[in-house]
Design goal:
With 163 residues, the protein is mainly α. It has a domain at 21-126. Helix content is 85%, strand content 0%. It has helices at 17-100, 106-131, 134-162. The protein is rod-shaped. The chain starts with 16 loop residues before the first helix and ends with a helix. Mean pLDDT is 77; it is low at 150-156.
Amino acid sequence: MAKPTHKTDNPLAAMSPQQVWLAGLGAMAQAQARGTQAFEALVSDGLSFQRKSQEQAQQRIHEATEQLSSMAHNMGQQASGRIDKLEHLFEDRVAKALQRLGMPSMADIVALSERVSALEAQLQATAKPTQATPSRVSSKASAKAAASKAPARKASSAARKKA
């Protein structure tokens, strides 16, 4: 069998193993020389990536904080509204129970208080003329006291005559 002959396009095939070895050593020398520069470039790329990541994280934290704050505010308003509704419901039920028991409502008490105040004002207005003449009252009182003492004296004198 005959070996097929074909043309190779690989330039390394035409080189000797010694040349390939030397080329590898040259590449390693270049990598070492450029290694410091490559390391510094990687460090600067890493710093810029870290800054961008931190900025994005801060922005997301800020957005999340705003969203949670808004949710908490909404929940607080809903809870406050529900508490108000429960409070009104409780007040209405207590008022109905008190009304069934015959207890006056606050409106009844206020109306009664206003009525008492009006009656007191009328009473004071009618009592002022009698208070202007205190000598009449005292003279009437002294006359009544004298009249009550007079029968007692008559009774004691009648008892003496019998004895």
